[in-house]
Amino acid sequence: EQSEEVGEEYLFKIVIIGDSAVGKSNLLSRFARNEFDSNSKATIGVEFQTQVLEIDGKEVKAQIWDTAGQERFRAVTSAYYRGAVGALIVYDISRRSTFDSVKRWLDELTTHCDSTLARMLVGNKCDLENIREVSIEEGKSLAEEEGLFFMETSALDSTNVQTAFEIVIREIYTNIS
Length: 177
Ligand code: GDP
Ligand code: MG
Prior knowledge:
Its main location: membrane. Keywords: GTP-binding, Lipoprotein, Membrane, Nucleotide-binding, Prenylation. With 177 residues, this protein is an alpha/beta fold. It is built from six helices and seven strands, in the order ββαββαβααβαβα. Strands 1, 2, 3, 4, 5, 6 and 7 form a seven-stranded mixed beta sheet that branches. The structure holds guanosine-5'-diphosphate (GDP) and magnesium ion. Guanosine-5'-diphosphate (GDP) binds next to helix 1.
């Protein structure tokens, strides 16, 4: 079992993956700090953020990992994935190439993680409806094919960000309890 149980506390490692600039870092900052950054600078420094939730009266710590921009070079290392029990696979609904990459990211998870991993496909930037390149139906059907949860989000206007993370965290909790 890769999740750690400390008394009545739980610690879950969750990774965020997907192509560069799909909004991974902003999803995390929106979830963890309710912040959004419109400057597209590569994430430097922060490895993960911890959020504490209560489920069934138990304290659950979600340790959510963000890449430091290494996905640009297709060089996310196995250390990044090690011990993960949940994953958000993110694409940008306004850039089809990022959706086309999802299968490759799923292969990465298969290579590096346990098959019991809780996985959520996230179509981010749903505020950009006017320049949408990937329909909701396409996202849904890929998620169904691959057995993933699915949600469209906007880190900009906060749509579904909390919900997406919480579904993954609850699923991990359900899997182990
Ligand atoms: P990462 O490389 O996947 O970590 O992506 P970032 O979080 O750095 O975001 C890349 C760019 O997309 C930045 O300019 C963000 O401001 C922008 N961005 C992120 N999320 C959203 C969103 O939900 N809507 C819109 N319109 N822009 C976003
Ligand atoms: Mg980033």
